[in-house]
Amino acid sequence: MKIIYFSLDYTPHDYRFLAALAETEHQVYYLRLQHGPRQTEDRPVPEQIRQVLWEEPVLGSSKGGRGLFRWRDVPGYVLGLRQIIKRIQPDLIHAGPIQTCAFIAMLTGFRPILTMSWGFDLMKDVHRGWGWRQITKYVLRNTTYFTSDAEVTRNVAVQYGMNPEKTTVFPWGVDLGYFFPTPNVKQDASAGAQTPKSFTLFCNRSWEPNYGVDVLARAFARVAAQRPEVSLLLLGGGSQGHIIRQILNSGGVADRVTFAGQVSQRDLPRYYRMANLYISPSHVDGSSVSLMEALACGLPCLVSDIPANKEWVFEGRNGWLFPDGNVDALTAKILAAIDQRASLPGIGKNARLVAEDRADWKKNFGKLLIAYEKTVSK
């Protein structure tokens, strides 16, 4: 069948979906709504995927796929997408997030549409105000079929009008042959090298308000004051960079933090393997791919107790939970993990087992293809 895959931007998640779709018999056309300020995926779109360019700007709007999404340009996006639909004649549109891509697709009048939640659209954006809630209701009450990566987001979708019988949940998962434990990996002194007595904390969440890295920075400052063997390895960056660095500098622990910046997907597994403990202090998430990567690498995980994380981390078995946003509790949990480091290998093995059972991308992706079939059969 012909499928338009319509997404907000081009991220590692988009690449994985497109790369997998490229291996199927379907003709897939990739359309991005915006070009964000930070390029988050450095791998090219797979050759087998047909990239779609927006038509010339209409109604004075900016051209889709070049700048940031703007609400005032929605009429132009709708007209532009109608032109694309007329040219391609797709069998279905796979669109998400809900309040942007799926909303624009819905306004074109085309059906069938598979709406895919990206987690934040139902865990945060829907709470931004009356308008966001109304858009969410409109999309979900009119969508043909729905998929998300966590039960918590599926349940929210049902609350906003999605027919529960027309939903599929599947964690996006990870490549278990790429993310796996390596006990004797050689450490790189420039990126969190360990000595036998050292203990490295690792976080690769974006430095944005949603992800709580500032909470981790405060907790680390307290832990480092008590435990000289502890270091912190941070990847990425974001709008809270100045706040996070100020916290670490004020605590006198910045010299014990490795700021590794943006890391390619090719190099990412190496950083998980350099750590003793993975930490995700996120305030909002679906099934976090970075959490699944950590589990797949056999890394004990300490995460905030938001609903989606509780679907993956089980206290004392493959990691620990702490009350979301609670610096004192996170500090105590880190110290407790250090004190029981002898038991961490066993917890890491349990983490890998959870990944093998539920986070295998190759197996989980098949559920999307089934969802496509259900979408066009409605």
Task: Supply database-style keywords.
378 residues; alpha/beta; Rossmann fold; six-stranded parallel β-sheet; 13 strands
Count the helices. How many?
A: 14
Query: Any idea what the radius of gyration is?
Result: 21 Å
CATH level-four homologous superfamily name of the largest domain: Glycogen Phosphorylase B
Order of helices and strands: EHEEHEHEHHEHEEHEHEHEHEHEHHH
User: Going across the major beta sheet, what is the strand order?
Assistant: 3-2-1-4-5-6-7
Q: What is the fold named in CATH at topology level of the largest domain?
A: Rossmann fold
Summed up, the domain count is 2
Biggest sheet features: 7 strands, parallel
Give the helix proportion (percent range): 25-40%
Description:
This protein is 39% helix and 15% strand. Strands 3-2-1-4-5-6-7 form a seven-stranded parallel β-sheet, sandwiched between helices. Strands 10-9-8-11-12-13 form a six-stranded parallel β-sheet, with helices on both faces. Strand 11 (277-280), helix 10 and strand 12 (301-304) form a beta-alpha-beta unit. Helix 7 runs parallel beside helix 8 (241-250) and helix 7 crosses helix 12 (327-339). It has helices at 12-21, 74-88, 98-107, 120-123, 130-142, 151-159, 213-226, 241-250, 268-272, 289-296, 307-310, 327-339, 344-358, 361-377, and strands spanning 2-7, 27-32, 50-51, 92-96, 113-116, 145-148, 167-169, 199-203, 230-234, 257-259, 277-280, 301-304, 319-322. It has 14 helices and 13 strands. It has two domains: 2-172 and 361-377, Glycogen Phosphorylase B (Rossmann fold), CATH 3.40.50; 199-358, Rossmann fold (3-Layer(aba) Sandwich). It has 378 residues and is α/β, with parallel strands linked by helices.
